[in-house]
Amino acid sequence: MKNIVYIATSLDGYIADKNDGLDWLPSPDSADFGFEAFIDSIDALVMGKNTFQTVLAYGGEWFYSKPVFVVSSSLKEIPKHLEEKVFLIQGTPTEITNLLRKEGFENLYIDGGLTVQNFLKEDVIDELIITTIPTLLGDGKPLFGKQEKQLQFKCIESKVINKMVQNHFIKER
Amino acid sequence: MKNIVYIATSLDGYIADKNDGLDWLPSPDSADFGFEAFIDSIDALVMGKNTFQTVLAYGGEWFYSKPVFVVSSSLKEIPKHLEEKVFLIQGTPTEITNLLRKEGFENLYIDGGLTVQNFLKEDVIDELIITTIPTLLGDGKPLFGKQEKQLQFKCIESKVINKMVQNHFIKER
Protein backbone atom coordinates (compact mmCIF):
# COMPACT_ATOMS: atom_id res chain seq x y z
CA MET A 1 0.00 0.00 0.00
CA LYS A 2 1.93 2.97 -1.29
CA ASN A 3 1.42 6.50 -2.52
CA ILE A 4 3.83 7.12 -5.34
CA VAL A 5 4.85 10.23 -7.25
CA TYR A 6 6.10 9.65 -10.80
CA ILE A 7 7.09 12.92 -12.38
CA ALA A 8 9.62 14.75 -14.55
CA THR A 9 11.39 17.90 -13.47
CA SER A 10 13.91 20.20 -15.07
CA LEU A 11 17.48 20.24 -13.76
CA ASP A 12 16.47 23.17 -11.58
CA GLY A 13 13.44 21.36 -10.16
CA TYR A 14 10.54 22.77 -12.18
CA ILE A 15 7.59 20.75 -13.47
CA ALA A 16 6.48 23.48 -15.89
CA ASP A 17 8.14 26.60 -17.21
CA LYS A 18 7.09 30.05 -16.05
CA ASN A 19 4.26 30.18 -18.61
CA ASP A 20 3.07 26.71 -17.52
CA GLY A 21 4.66 25.38 -20.72
CA LEU A 22 5.84 21.81 -21.11
CA ASP A 23 7.59 22.00 -24.47
CA TRP A 24 10.97 21.38 -22.82
CA LEU A 25 9.78 17.85 -21.94
CA PRO A 26 10.98 15.12 -24.28
CA SER A 27 8.36 13.19 -26.20
CA PRO A 28 7.22 10.11 -24.26
CA ASP A 29 8.42 8.05 -27.22
CA SER A 30 11.98 9.40 -27.07
CA ALA A 31 13.08 6.88 -24.47
CA ASP A 32 11.72 4.15 -22.22
CA PHE A 33 10.94 5.85 -18.94
CA GLY A 34 9.20 2.78 -17.52
CA PHE A 35 5.86 4.58 -17.50
CA GLU A 36 3.75 1.64 -18.67
CA ALA A 37 5.21 -0.74 -16.10
CA PHE A 38 4.64 1.94 -13.50
CA ILE A 39 0.98 2.39 -14.49
CA ASP A 40 0.55 -1.40 -14.36
CA SER A 41 1.84 -1.33 -10.78
CA ILE A 42 -0.70 1.19 -9.47
CA ASP A 43 -4.41 0.82 -8.76
CA ALA A 44 -5.60 4.38 -9.21
CA LEU A 45 -4.44 7.94 -9.84
CA VAL A 46 -5.07 10.96 -7.67
CA MET A 47 -4.59 14.34 -9.31
CA GLY A 48 -5.56 17.95 -8.77
CA LYS A 49 -8.09 19.85 -10.81
CA ASN A 50 -5.43 21.74 -12.76
CA THR A 51 -3.65 18.60 -13.86
CA PHE A 52 -6.96 17.02 -14.83
CA GLN A 53 -7.90 20.04 -16.93
CA THR A 54 -4.47 20.05 -18.57
CA VAL A 55 -4.85 16.38 -19.49
CA LEU A 56 -8.38 17.05 -20.79
CA ALA A 57 -7.13 19.94 -22.89
CA TYR A 58 -4.76 17.64 -24.78
CA GLY A 59 -7.87 16.08 -26.29
CA GLY A 60 -7.71 12.75 -28.08
CA GLU A 61 -8.39 9.46 -26.40
CA TRP A 62 -8.42 9.26 -22.63
CA PHE A 63 -4.89 8.50 -21.54
CA TYR A 64 -5.15 6.45 -18.36
CA SER A 65 -6.10 2.81 -18.05
CA LYS A 66 -6.63 3.06 -14.27
CA PRO A 67 -9.33 5.00 -12.37
CA VAL A 68 -8.51 8.67 -11.89
CA PHE A 69 -9.65 10.52 -8.78
CA VAL A 70 -9.67 14.29 -9.17
CA VAL A 71 -9.27 16.23 -5.93
CA SER A 72 -11.55 19.22 -6.16
CA SER A 73 -14.19 20.99 -4.13
CA SER A 74 -15.14 23.29 -7.01
CA LEU A 75 -15.59 20.87 -9.90
CA LYS A 76 -19.17 19.64 -9.93
CA GLU A 77 -19.17 17.15 -12.76
CA ILE A 78 -17.03 15.03 -15.00
CA PRO A 79 -17.47 15.05 -18.78
CA LYS A 80 -20.00 12.39 -19.78
CA HIS A 81 -17.58 10.24 -21.78
CA LEU A 82 -15.30 9.91 -18.73
CA GLU A 83 -17.94 9.06 -16.15
CA GLU A 84 -16.72 5.52 -15.62
CA LYS A 85 -13.04 6.48 -15.65
CA VAL A 86 -12.79 9.70 -13.68
CA PHE A 87 -14.26 10.44 -10.26
CA LEU A 88 -14.38 13.51 -8.05
CA ILE A 89 -13.00 13.25 -4.54
CA GLN A 90 -12.61 15.65 -1.62
CA GLY A 91 -10.69 15.64 1.63
CA THR A 92 -7.23 16.02 3.05
CA PRO A 93 -4.45 13.85 1.61
CA THR A 94 -4.72 11.54 4.63
CA GLU A 95 -8.50 11.29 4.30
CA ILE A 96 -8.27 10.63 0.56
CA THR A 97 -5.63 7.96 1.09
CA ASN A 98 -7.70 6.20 3.75
CA LEU A 99 -10.88 6.43 1.71
CA LEU A 100 -9.32 4.94 -1.42
CA ARG A 101 -7.59 2.19 0.57
CA LYS A 102 -10.96 1.23 2.06
CA GLU A 103 -12.31 0.99 -1.47
CA GLY A 104 -9.53 -1.42 -2.36
CA PHE A 105 -7.13 0.88 -4.21
CA GLU A 106 -3.80 0.02 -2.66
CA ASN A 107 -1.12 1.71 -4.73
CA LEU A 108 -1.92 5.28 -5.67
CA TYR A 109 -0.18 7.45 -8.25
CA ILE A 110 -0.22 10.98 -6.84
CA ASP A 111 0.11 13.53 -9.63
CA GLY A 112 0.09 17.28 -10.12
CA GLY A 113 2.17 20.00 -8.50
CA LEU A 114 -0.06 21.22 -5.69
CA THR A 115 -1.46 17.78 -4.98
CA VAL A 116 2.03 16.32 -4.56
CA GLN A 117 3.00 19.23 -2.29
CA ASN A 118 -0.13 18.76 -0.18
CA PHE A 119 0.50 15.03 0.18
CA LEU A 120 4.14 15.66 1.16
CA LYS A 121 3.04 18.15 3.80
CA GLU A 122 1.03 15.38 5.46
CA ASP A 123 3.84 12.87 4.95
CA VAL A 124 1.69 10.45 2.99
CA ILE A 125 4.06 10.00 0.05
CA ASP A 126 5.97 6.69 0.15
CA GLU A 127 7.92 6.84 -3.09
CA LEU A 128 9.18 9.47 -5.50
CA ILE A 129 10.26 8.45 -9.00
CA ILE A 130 11.74 11.61 -10.46
CA THR A 131 13.04 11.86 -14.00
CA THR A 132 15.38 14.81 -14.30
CA ILE A 133 15.33 16.41 -17.74
CA PRO A 134 18.78 18.04 -17.95
CA THR A 135 17.50 21.43 -19.02
CA LEU A 136 18.06 24.40 -16.77
CA LEU A 137 14.83 26.34 -17.30
CA GLY A 138 15.78 29.34 -15.19
CA ASP A 139 12.28 29.79 -13.78
CA GLY A 140 8.99 27.94 -13.51
CA LYS A 141 6.62 26.03 -11.29
CA PRO A 142 8.61 24.03 -8.72
CA LEU A 143 7.88 20.41 -7.86
CA PHE A 144 8.61 20.92 -4.18
CA GLY A 145 7.02 23.68 -2.14
CA LYS A 146 7.94 25.05 1.22
CA GLN A 147 6.92 22.97 4.19
CA GLU A 148 7.61 22.80 7.92
CA LYS A 149 8.23 19.10 8.22
CA GLN A 150 11.55 17.63 7.10
CA LEU A 151 11.22 14.20 5.48
CA GLN A 152 13.88 11.52 5.06
CA PHE A 153 13.92 9.43 1.92
CA LYS A 154 16.53 7.08 0.52
CA CYS A 155 17.57 6.60 -3.07
CA ILE A 156 17.26 2.95 -4.05
CA GLU A 157 17.86 3.12 -7.78
CA SER A 158 19.14 5.46 -10.44
CA LYS A 159 19.14 5.08 -14.21
CA VAL A 160 20.58 7.22 -16.96
CA ILE A 161 18.03 7.23 -19.79
CA ASN A 162 19.12 8.93 -23.00
CA LYS A 163 20.82 11.99 -21.40
CA MET A 164 18.19 12.13 -18.64
CA VAL A 165 18.28 10.46 -15.24
CA GLN A 166 15.56 8.74 -13.27
CA ASN A 167 16.07 8.54 -9.52
CA HIS A 168 13.86 6.40 -7.30
CA PHE A 169 13.46 7.49 -3.67
CA ILE A 170 11.51 5.75 -0.94
CA LYS A 171 10.42 7.20 2.35
CA GLU A 172 12.27 6.07 5.45
CA ARG A 173 9.70 5.16 8.11
CA MET B 1 39.54 23.17 -19.85
CA LYS B 2 36.41 22.95 -17.81
CA ASN B 3 34.50 24.77 -15.10
CA ILE B 4 32.97 22.20 -12.81
CA VAL B 5 30.45 22.42 -9.98
CA TYR B 6 30.70 19.68 -7.36
CA ILE B 7 28.03 20.14 -4.73
CA ALA B 8 25.44 18.47 -2.53
CA THR B 9 21.80 19.49 -2.45
CA SER B 10 18.77 18.33 -0.53
CA LEU B 11 16.04 16.43 -2.37
CA ASP B 12 14.27 19.75 -2.81
CA GLY B 13 17.35 21.46 -4.25
CA TYR B 14 18.74 23.41 -1.30
CA ILE B 15 22.43 23.76 -0.46
CA ALA B 16 21.76 25.03 3.06
CA ASP B 17 18.69 25.06 5.26
CA LYS B 18 16.77 28.26 5.94
CA ASN B 19 19.12 29.19 8.80
CA ASP B 20 22.15 28.53 6.56
CA GLY B 21 22.63 25.28 8.47
CA LEU B 22 24.39 22.25 7.04
CA ASP B 23 23.72 19.68 9.74
CA TRP B 24 21.50 17.68 7.36
CA LEU B 25 24.60 16.90 5.28
CA PRO B 26 26.14 13.48 5.93
CA SER B 27 29.66 13.40 7.28
CA PRO B 28 32.22 13.31 4.45
CA ASP B 29 33.42 10.01 5.92
CA SER B 30 30.00 8.35 5.68
CA ALA B 31 30.49 7.27 2.09
CA ASP B 32 32.91 7.64 -0.81
CA PHE B 33 31.61 10.58 -2.82
CA GLY B 34 34.69 10.68 -5.06
CA PHE B 35 35.70 14.05 -3.65
CA GLU B 36 39.44 13.34 -3.48
CA ALA B 37 39.60 12.08 -7.05
CA PHE B 38 37.63 15.14 -8.06
CA ILE B 39 40.02 17.52 -6.29
CA ASP B 40 42.94 15.73 -7.97
CA SER B 41 41.32 16.45 -11.33
CA ILE B 42 41.03 20.21 -10.89
CA ASP B 43 43.71 22.90 -10.94
CA ALA B 44 42.13 25.55 -8.76
CA LEU B 45 38.95 26.49 -6.89
CA VAL B 46 36.85 29.59 -7.35
CA MET B 47 34.48 30.45 -4.54
CA GLY B 48 32.53 33.42 -3.25
CA LYS B 49 33.34 35.38 -0.14
CA ASN B 50 30.55 33.75 1.89
CA THR B 51 31.73 30.23 1.13
CA PHE B 52 35.31 31.22 1.94
CA GLN B 53 34.26 32.67 5.27
CA THR B 54 32.20 29.57 6.05
CA VAL B 55 35.21 27.35 5.34
CA LEU B 56 37.44 29.63 7.45
CA ALA B 57 34.96 29.48 10.33
CA TYR B 58 35.30 25.70 10.50
CA GLY B 59 38.83 26.34 11.77
CA GLY B 60 41.38 23.56 11.87
CA GLU B 61 43.84 22.88 9.09
CA TRP B 62 43.26 24.44 5.69
CA PHE B 63 41.16 22.03 3.72
CA TYR B 64 42.14 22.43 0.08
CA SER B 65 45.29 21.16 -1.59
CA LYS B 66 44.73 23.31 -4.69
CA PRO B 67 44.89 27.12 -4.99
CA VAL B 68 41.65 28.84 -3.98
CA PHE B 69 40.52 32.05 -5.68
CA VAL B 70 37.99 34.03 -3.69
CA VAL B 71 35.72 36.25 -5.77
CA SER B 72 35.24 39.46 -3.84
CA SER B 73 35.44 43.18 -4.33
CA SER B 74 35.03 43.89 -0.63
CA LEU B 75 37.61 41.59 0.97
CA LYS B 76 40.94 43.35 1.16
CA GLU B 77 43.21 40.72 2.58
CA ILE B 78 43.66 37.05 3.18
CA PRO B 79 44.69 35.73 6.62
CA LYS B 80 48.49 35.56 6.85
CA HIS B 81 48.71 31.76 7.15
CA LEU B 82 46.79 31.31 3.89
CA GLU B 83 48.70 33.81 1.79
CA GLU B 84 50.23 31.17 -0.46
CA LYS B 85 47.04 29.14 -0.74
CA VAL B 86 44.22 31.63 -1.13
CA PHE B 87 44.04 34.58 -3.51
CA LEU B 88 41.56 37.37 -4.10
CA ILE B 89 40.11 37.78 -7.57
CA GLN B 90 37.60 40.15 -9.18
CA GLY B 91 35.65 40.23 -12.41
CA THR B 92 32.74 38.63 -14.17
CA PRO B 93 32.61 34.84 -14.38
CA THR B 94 33.83 35.03 -17.98
CA GLU B 95 36.68 37.38 -17.06
CA ILE B 96 37.71 35.23 -14.11
CA THR B 97 37.65 32.09 -16.26
CA ASN B 98 39.78 33.70 -18.95
CA LEU B 99 42.21 35.17 -16.45
CA LEU B 100 42.78 31.87 -14.65
CA ARG B 101 43.13 29.97 -17.92
CA LYS B 102 45.82 32.42 -18.99
CA GLU B 103 47.62 31.71 -15.74
CA GLY B 104 47.56 28.00 -16.54
CA PHE B 105 44.65 26.83 -14.38
CA GLU B 106 42.65 24.69 -16.77
CA ASN B 107 40.03 22.86 -14.75
CA LEU B 108 38.27 25.03 -12.21
CA TYR B 109 36.06 23.91 -9.33
CA ILE B 110 33.36 26.57 -9.02
CA ASP B 111 31.89 26.58 -5.53
CA GLY B 112 29.37 28.49 -3.46
CA GLY B 113 25.72 29.29 -4.11
CA LEU B 114 25.85 32.77 -5.62
CA THR B 115 29.09 32.09 -7.47
CA VAL B 116 27.63 29.01 -9.14
CA GLN B 117 24.48 30.97 -10.06
CA ASN B 118 26.55 33.81 -11.53
CA PHE B 119 28.67 31.41 -13.58
CA LEU B 120 25.52 29.65 -14.87
CA LYS B 121 24.03 32.99 -15.90
CA GLU B 122 27.04 33.55 -18.18
CA ASP B 123 26.94 29.93 -19.36
CA VAL B 124 30.50 29.21 -18.27
CA ILE B 125 29.75 26.01 -16.35
CA ASP B 126 30.74 22.86 -18.25
CA GLU B 127 29.91 20.17 -15.72
CA LEU B 128 27.68 19.72 -12.69
CA ILE B 129 28.32 16.88 -10.27
CA ILE B 130 25.37 16.99 -7.90
CA THR B 131 25.00 14.67 -4.94
CA THR B 132 21.37 14.57 -3.83
CA ILE B 133 20.96 14.02 -0.12
CA PRO B 134 17.50 12.45 0.11
CA THR B 135 16.20 14.80 2.78
CA LEU B 136 13.31 17.08 1.98
CA LEU B 137 14.28 20.20 3.93
CA GLY B 138 11.13 22.16 3.18
CA ASP B 139 12.95 25.46 2.82
CA GLY B 140 16.46 26.82 2.42
CA LYS B 141 18.99 28.37 0.10
CA PRO B 142 18.51 26.98 -3.42
CA LEU B 143 21.39 25.80 -5.60
CA PHE B 144 19.81 27.19 -8.75
CA GLY B 145 18.58 30.76 -9.05
CA LYS B 146 16.33 32.37 -11.59
CA GLN B 147 17.91 33.18 -14.90
CA GLU B 148 16.84 34.23 -18.39
CA LYS B 149 18.94 31.82 -20.38
CA GLN B 150 17.89 28.17 -20.67
CA LEU B 151 20.82 25.76 -20.69
CA GLN B 152 20.95 22.19 -22.00
CA PHE B 153 23.01 19.61 -20.16
CA LYS B 154 23.10 15.85 -20.46
CA CYS B 155 23.44 13.29 -17.73
CA ILE B 156 26.40 11.02 -18.38
CA GLU B 157 26.57 9.06 -15.14
CA SER B 158 24.58 8.34 -12.04
CA LYS B 159 25.59 6.48 -8.90
CA VAL B 160 23.62 5.49 -5.82
CA ILE B 161 25.92 6.04 -2.84
CA ASN B 162 24.61 4.85 0.51
CA LYS B 163 20.99 6.09 0.11
CA MET B 164 22.17 9.21 -1.74
CA VAL B 165 22.61 9.67 -5.47
CA GLN B 166 25.31 11.46 -7.43
CA ASN B 167 24.36 12.63 -10.91
CA HIS B 168 26.95 13.92 -13.36
CA PHE B 169 25.77 16.40 -15.99
CA ILE B 170 27.79 17.96 -18.78
CA LYS B 171 26.88 21.00 -20.84
CA GLU B 172 25.81 20.40 -24.41
CA ARG B 173 27.69 22.85 -26.63
Q: How do you describe this structure in short?
A:
Chain A is an alpha/beta fold.
What attributes does this structure have?
homodimer; 173 residues; alpha/beta; Dihydrofolate Reductase, subunit A; eight-stranded mixed β-sheet; 11 strands
Characterize the structure shown.
- Two copies of one chain form a homodimer.
- Chain A has 173 residues and is an alpha/beta fold.
- Chain A has a single domain, classed as Dihydrofolate Reductase, subunit A (3-Layer(aba) Sandwich), CATH 3.40.430.10.
- The first copy, chain A, is 21% helix and 34% strand.
- Chain A contains four helices and eleven strands.
- The first copy, chain A, has helices spanning 35-41, 49-58, 93-102, 113-121; strands at residues 3-10, 14-16, 44-48, 68-71, 86-89, 108-111, 127-133, 135-136, 141-142, 151-161, 164-171.
- In chain A, the strands form two sheets. Chain A has an eight-stranded mixed β-sheet, sandwiched between helices.
- In chain A, a hairpin with a 2-residue loop joins strand 10 (151-161) and strand 11.
- Chain A starts with a strand and ends with a strand.
- The mean pLDDT of chain A is 95.
- At the A-B interface, strand 8, strand 10 and strand 11 of A face strand 8, strand 10 and strand 11 of B.
- Strand 10 (151-161) of chain A pairs antiparallel with strand 8 of chain B, so a sheet runs across the interface.
